[in-house]
């Protein structure tokens, strides 16, 4: 039995899933680390994801050592990982991660990258292999479903790729982790959503001391 297609992202209280875009070369170039744009991007990204850094599961998954916080946030992070049999992501998310993920990336499953550039599969430690597909989001999802078996497929991001899958009617469920931060500008999760085609059914709300996790089923309108 095929699993669900879902996404799970952190979001600022005003609806952004990423800070205002900065060229990747600027973010990672040592000579640009004092650039105010880069410092602002890094600070906002850190605030958005701050809830996950102390978690026991996060530390285990990235092999950062023992210890870490437990509780509902940790349970949700672990459950999201365990349900995922394969992931799909866009080119920019991959390029950002390619420069920052460790040799053993945090997926441990096949990952299908939607891109316009052909490239041989990139095999990493821990069971993660990146496959690069240049023939559209539906083909990437088909490949991910086959790889996932009876587990779920996660649309990992970024926001533009998630929105493409939502507007194509290919997402069954999603969770947003609302962080108590305001961005003002950046990548809005639902900027450009085809609201005439998408209806939501609330499934769960999990408030914790750090964030609020909201989960919805996606229905055709």
From TrEMBL:
Residues 4-204 form the Bacterial bifunctional deaminase-reductase C-terminal domain. Pfam families: RibD_C. Signal peptide: none annotated. This is Dihydrofolate reductase. GO terms for biological process: riboflavin biosynthetic process. Transmembrane segments: none annotated. It comes from Actinacidiphila rubida. InterPro entries: DHFR-like_dom_sf, RibDG_C, Riboflavin_Biosynth_HTPR. GO terms for molecular function: 5-amino-6-(5-phosphoribosylamino)uracil reductase activity.
